[in-house]
Amino acid sequence: MFCLPNRIPIFTKNTEFMSILFQTWPWYISGFIIGVIMLCLTYFGKHFGMSSNLESLCSMSGLGKKVAYFNFDWKANKWNLTVVVGAMIGGFVAVHFMSDPTNVAINPTTIEQLAALGIDAPNGKLAPDVLFGNQIFESPKSILILLVGGILIGFGTRYAGGCTSGHAISGLSNLQLPSLKAVIGFFIGGLIMVHLLLPLLF
Amino acid sequence: MKLIKYLVVGFVFGIVLTKSEAVSWYRIYEMFQFQSFHMYGIISVAIATGLIGIQIIKRNNIKDIDGAPIVIKDKEKGAARYWIGGILFGLGWGLVGSCPGPIFILLGAGVFPVILVLIGALVGTILYGLFKEKLPH
Asked: 20 to 30 A Cα–Cα from A57, which one of A21, A65, A85, A127?
């Protein structure tokens, strides 16, 4: 079977610089680069917003003939779909060639709380097996959780007109009051889910 | 060829979001439990960087790459859509720990079950398209 090497030879952890790249990137560097990405897209005459791609995908599939909302020229958003393709490749490279078992070192208290809910610890993984392991396709409950979560995300983000990138980063950095309302909403929803609903689901 | 710069920007975005672990379900959970500054730091620094950059662009009337004036559209006025839509999105974000960007990034990274979140998100988008006119905005 086709198997990916864990590290490509020229890109090893031997140098100190490379070793830093393999660690969890600090918030001040990551946040700065995300801000620069938004500014780059602004400079290209576009904007930073990921969730509008969901609409483009719907329009691309021909839904515009049935639902007027999707009747627009998705080809005008090709640039944003290209950003998505780039992001997918970036995710692939980062996970397969730039990860380290020390990654995702979350607060030990958080790990204990998760254990009490029966959710496995990260140990270098980005997502818990209980929700994102390949065995979940045999669990109707996990399938339902992921689908419902997705529906809330898709519906909510289109209703609110943006997600974390469009409202929290782009909107707030342009001092938009509607974005502040949306972001406060994001946090109200997230806090209700994590503190009140998740403990009932697990 | 014109699209290459978007591919590069997306590539960097995918790497940063993965290496900062903003795509991680655990980091989102930890954020909503207020047990780490990490995510708050990322979001704040991104906003601060954007804020300074946009002010520089506006005050110096910087043109875009094609020489056209940079126009940043204001968000539409309204309340219901932002509060209700925001809360619904937040519920989903807290449950599956990924917003639209990370859904695609994780899929690229090989976290295959995220396909279910993407299918759900597309269904949610279609539902909004169907009921948009009936919803308060």
From this structure: A127
